[in-house]
Amino acid sequence: METQTALRLANDISTWIRDYVTQAGLKTLVVGISGGIDSAVVSTLCARSGVDTCVISMPIRQRPEQDHLSREHGRWLLANYSDCVTHRVIDLSDTFTQFERATGQFGYKNLLGLANSRSRLRMACLYQTAQSLSGLVVGTGNRVEDFGVGFFTKYGDGGVDISPIGDLTKTQVWSLGHVLGIHKDIISAAPTDGLWDDGRTDQDQLGGLTYAELERAMDLDSSGVPEHTLNDEDQILIQQYQRIRGPNLHKMLPIPVFNQGDRYV
Fold it and tell me: Is residue 69 part of a domain?
């Protein structure tokens, strides 16, 4: 994306954020910052809106490099947007450990469940903050994660009030990171959700596919082009994409509701 195009997009999103908050009659934007590019871009767009923005680092037994980048970005925001930004560090490690022990005593030790519980604990922290500050929780998911492969935690990082970059590809988010002056180490870091003790990356969890490959697969999948007309490489790519997307569709669809119709009226 060209620099001027990226800057216009950044300005448009910040204006959209400001207008939404004004129309909602609220005062504050609350953003969790993880040290990753998505939350760094979203928090910066919020700060650029001029609305009071509370950014929160929420380490949960975090790997040092991730925690460092989160705190570093918080300091950068304070240095550049001191008139409207507050940075809080709320360490949830002890809270999570207590949760892990309480559920673990009954054998509920599923590792994916615990990873998702970290995300849900952070969501609860963000909403407690937002409720206290007459604010709203700002989502940090991009289009590939939120509407492509469903790479988010239901009622965790998927629980938000507004989604400023939900229509942007990861490639576009990286472009915004460059024009907004995001720390180069955040831009170059391998994307990760930060929910695993072993530090696994997004690519590790997404079948080895890069975001560029996922974006291409999304485009092909929505193009309406018959799969058999594609070359072998693209056919394999779409099949990999659909294998990831399928089990996650429930996150992107409305909650199923039993409809009693006229039978019980």
Answer: yes
Give the pLDDT confidence of 148-190 residue by residue, as tens digits: 999 999 999 999 999 999 999 999 999 999 999 999 999 999 9
3-state secondary structure of 205: helix
pTM over 0.85: yes
CB atoms within 10 A of CB 248: 15
| Sheet of strand 52-57: strand arrangement | 85-89, 52-57, 28-32, 135-137
Domain extent at residue 156: 3-205
* pLDDT of residue 262 exceeding 80: no
In a domain, 100, yes or no: yes
Tokens at 49, concatenated: 């809106």
User: Domain of 127: which CATH number?
Assistant: 3.40.50.620
Q: How many domains does the chain have?
A: 1
Per the domain annotation, does 230 fall within a domain?
Answer: no
The helix (H) or strand (E) run that includes residue 213 is helix 211-222
Which tens digits make up the pLDDT trace of 95-117? 999 999 999 999 999 999 999 99
Residue 146 inside a domain? The answer is yes
